[in-house]
Specification:
Blueprint lengths: L9 H14 L20 H15 L6 H10 L1 H9 L4 H7 L6 H11 L6 H10 L2 H7 L4 H10 L7 H16 L8 E3 L10 E4 L4 H6 L3 E6 L2 E7 L1 H14 L9 H11 L12 H10 L1
Parallel strand pairs: 1-2
Antiparallel strand pairs: 2-3, 3-4
Helix pairs in contact: 2-3, 6-12, 8-10, 9-10, 13-14
Length: 285
Amino acid sequence: MIEHTMYPTNAEYVQVAKALIVKYPFLKDLEGNGYAIAVIGEDASSIEGHVNVLHIQYSKMRPDTLVVKDRMQRTFAWRRREIRDGMTVEDTLKKYPFLKTPSGLCDEVDRMHSSAVSLSQRFKEGFTSIVPKVLELQRNAPLAKIYKEAREEMLAEDLPDSDFRAALILLPHIFKEKAESLVTLGECDADNPYPTIQLVETDWKMAFSKRVQVLVKADGVEVCRGIGVEEGILAAFSAYYVFNLAYPPYMKNTLTFLQHAIAKITEVGGKPLPITVTRVLNILC
């Protein structure tokens, strides 16, 4: 369906659901028409009330985190249905403004794929363990040479964080994918609708050595702002799930690797991992 349109309508989802049920009757819901999505305990009126509360909290200097968490959870199923039915990235962010932060995007993924350990923590710990191997495998890449020069000018205490950022930027090259397709420098917007990270700085050395300001964009709109490549990449990765977007072909292996090896997210009935991803996973993990 993603190959047909980025935002399938409810009618298109229903059409596909009906076709699946005809071919695989055991998938049919035992109640109703077999494919309806129920949002238990909520309706349009109650959702509107929750959304109003969220907007009031968003306008405050210090939102009540417990209230925000509660209302985001109450509207979660309804929101997922809206997005599946074709709500655009821009309209989703307008209606649910707490998704306009890196932490808000990560929290939404945690609602979708619950775990005892948060996504941000899994990402940090999982990727830290492979940083030395990524840097070693990519030591001769053009960007790796730039990082080596930058590294020589850094203080010892800054090296772990800088190595982490450098490994994230260099990871796509292991899969023969371009880091520049995920991370852009300066005011240059990506020429695609997929989540990308735009660095305010125009110098790779600065991006490696410091936590510079980043913008995450998707579908031509600004999703959120963050500090550092690491926060930007995690937010962009989360955006694929939050906005129900498929991985683009030119970055599919990198994102699939991050999903399975680092974020530990598995999909029910998912396809086997590509051979390329499996090989790299065996090398790095």
